[in-house]
Amino acid sequence: MRKAIQHLKKADPVLSRIITDVGPCTMEYSEPSFETLVRSIVYQQLSGRVASVIYGRLQTAAGGEHLTPASIMKLRSERMRKAGLSAAKTLYIRELAKHTKKGSVVFETLSDADDATVIEHLTQVKGIGVWTAQMFLMFALRRPDVLPTGDLGIRTAMKRAWALEELPKPADMEKLAAAWKPWSTVACWYLWRHLDGPAAL
C-alpha cells in the first residue's frame, strides 16, 4: 500500500492533498465468494444500516450464518420478500444462486481471470451490472487498477476536487485518472472517503 500511496501523491497533486486529508488507507476486503456477491446485491441503493438488517434477516431465513446457492434455493421468493428484499433483488439473488449451482458462474476461477473476463462472467447474471462486477474486482479480488466510471460517488468527488463545471463523463474520468495507473482502486477509495461515501462491498 505504501508503494501505491507514494505513486499517487507524486503523480497527482490534487489527489495528494486528498490523501493527506483522509489519512492512512484502511481499505477492507471480502472473500471472492457467492456470499459476498449476494451481500453486494442486498446493499445496492440502500443505507448501510437498513441493508445490514435485511441481510441479517436473509441469513436467518436461510438457516445459517453463511449463505450458499443451496440455502437460497430452498427459500421461497415470498420468504425472501418478507425479509425485506425487493422483488427485483429477490430475483437477482435467486438467479445468481441458479447460475452458481449449475456451474455457469464459478467463483473459484475468478482469481486467475483478467478484469474484463471477470466482468463478462458476472454480468451474465440478471441484476449484476458492470458496477457490481467492478466492486467485486476492487473489494473481493483486490484488483489494484479499477476505475468505476459509472459510480456517482467517484464522479461527484472528481467534480468537487478538480473544480469541474459538471459531472465528468467516462472519457474525461479516464483521462484525468491516467496518472493513477496502476493504482486506480486506491485512488478511488480515497475519493470515496473524501466524500464520506460507501467504499466497500
Task: Please sum up the structure shown.
The protein is mainly α and 201 residues long. It is built from 12 helices and no strands.
Describe the structure.
With 201 residues, the protein is mainly α. It folds into two domains: 2-27 and 146-195, Endonuclease Iii, domain 2, CATH 1.10.1670; 34-139, Endonuclease III, domain 1 (Orthogonal Bundle). It contains twelve helices and no strands. The chain has helices at residues 2-11, 13-22, 34-43, 48-61, 69-73, 77-82, 87-102, 115-122, 130-139, 152-161, 170-177, 184-195. Helix 2 crosses helix 12 (184-195), helix 8 (115-122) packs across helix 9 and helix 10 packs across helix 12. The longest helix has 16 residues, at 87-102. The radius of gyration is 18 Å and the shape is elongated. The protein starts with a helix and ends in a 6-residue tail after the last helix.
CATH architecture classification name of the largest domain: Orthogonal Bundle
Spans of at least 5 consecutive residues with low confidence:
197-201
Q: What is the fold-level CATH name, i.e. the topology of the largest domain?
A: Endonuclease III, domain 1
**Could you tell me the strand content as a percent range?**
under 5%
